[in-house]
Specification:
Oligomer: single chain
Number of helices: 10
CATH topology of the largest domain: OB fold (Dihydrolipoamide Acetyltransferase, E2P)
Strand content: 25-35%
CATH class of the largest domain: Mainly Beta
Helix content: 10-25%
């Protein structure tokens, strides 16, 4: 009886006191500005949102990723971060981070979710934390332990075809898929910098070795020596052919809807996917390995891992490799674009473990824009 009476008294006290009631601020839908402006000490009678589960609706600005060191190389952490728009002051203070949404690739696969595109409006529920971001350990407001996630309004009409659906090129398919030679979207195998398939030199032995929409051109063999011989993987690639874009193909068929430079830098696309991006060229730089670094201007503010301080001034790496620059190439030598030009660039995505960034390697097609 006493226990029952005590419980009744405690319940009455809870009704009269805000301290026992759930904070309504944690139950309603919030916008990113409200979350990011969370004070370090909550007001009296309020529960801190940090550590609490909340629901947020916001607009995606871009995507980012984290990396870690394995020996002397970088390795990509299998998690992506969608970043939500906040007001300009908050964006600048957080290097464009805004509010992060942590989405492990395993969670995306298990739940059948897909990464929202830039401009999409999403509704997401998760636990608010202050993420110590990469080596600089700068705290970034981030939702983790995501339990609900929905794309409520899509900002782009770019086709995102699913597994088994028809396609003509890799970019027709969802981010994690590519276009198989038989013309349907399929899963990309686990590829990396050293892989033979979709390799960093663009070499092939038959058409089936090339991305959809390209062919293996037997009119050009990789030379064994000279300025246009391969610096990387010469034993594998000398004497092979090159995957070539059809010279007669219209630019709109090669690159109908270019992706944003920020998307490939942020880790949206896996190793081996053939993508086309639109970029302002910061400068071309001939490297000791005879690749030309065609550096695209990086969108500011910087949203990428703090392990990559060179990304700001150096730009986004897109590699014009020796074989594609060879005047003997029947497709024509791929000329390095001039500084300041606006270009569409087609090539293969690879993560460079020695630098720790995503790049296009090799470039297979370029078109200057007005």
């Amino acid at each position: 009886m006493r226990a029952k009476t005590g419980g009744t008294v405690l319940g009455l006290l809870c009704i009269l006191s805000a301290a026992c009631a759930p904070d309504e601020d944690l139950l309603r839908e919030l916008n990113p500005d409200e979350v990011v402006s969370e004070p370090s000490e909550p007001a009296p009678g309020r529960v801190s949102r940090v550590g609490s589960e909340i629901t947020v609706r916001g607009q995606v600005t871009t995507i980012s990723f984290a990396s870690r060191m394995v020996g002397r190389d970088f390795a990509v952490v299998p998690t992506r971060y969608l970043l939500l728009q906040t007001n300009e002051t908050q964006q600048n203070q957080s290097d464009g981070w805004g509010l992060g949404v942590e989405l492990p690739l395993s969670l995306l696969q298990a739940r059948g979710w897909r990464l929202a595109q830039t401009g999409d409006a999403i509704r997401v529920r998760g636990r608010l934390t202050r993420l110590a971001w990469d080596v600089a350990m700068v705290e970034k407001p981030t939702l983790t332990e995501i339990s609900e996630y929905a794309i409520e309004a899509a900002a782009t009409a770019r086709p995102q075809r699913g597994l088994g659906q028809p396609c003509e090129r890799d970019m027709d398919c969802q981010d994690e898929l590519w276009c198989e030679r038989r013309g349907v979207c399929g899963a990309i195998p686990a590829l990396n910098w050293d892989s033979d398939q979709a390799n960093i030199n663009g070499t092939c032995l038959r058409d089936e070795d090339c991305p959809a929409g390209q062919r293996c051109d037997p009119g050009y063999r990789i030379p064994a020596s000279g300025d246009y011989s391969p610096n990387y993987f010469p034993r594998r690639d000398i004497g092979r052919f090159l995957c070539q874009v059809d010279a007669a193909a219209s630019p709109d068929s090669v690159c109908p809807q270019p992706a944003a430079l920020a998307d490939f830098l942020g880790g949206r696309y896996p190793d081996g996917k053939e993508i086309c991006v639109q970029a302002q060229i910061a400068f071309p730089l001939l490297a000791p390995d005879r690749d030309t670094h065609v550096q695209g201007e990086v969108p500011w503010p910087l949203r990428y891992p703090e392990t990559l301080p060179a990304l700001g001034p150096f730009g986004a790496a897109m590699e014009n490799v020796p074989m594609y620059k060879d005047p003997a190439n029947p497709r024509g030598a791929l000329a390095d674009p001039p500084m300041g030009s606006r270009m569409r660039v087609l090539g293969t995505v690879h993560f460079d473990p020695s630098h720790g960034w995503w790049e296009i390697h090799p470039i297979k097609w370029l078109q200057r824009q007005p």
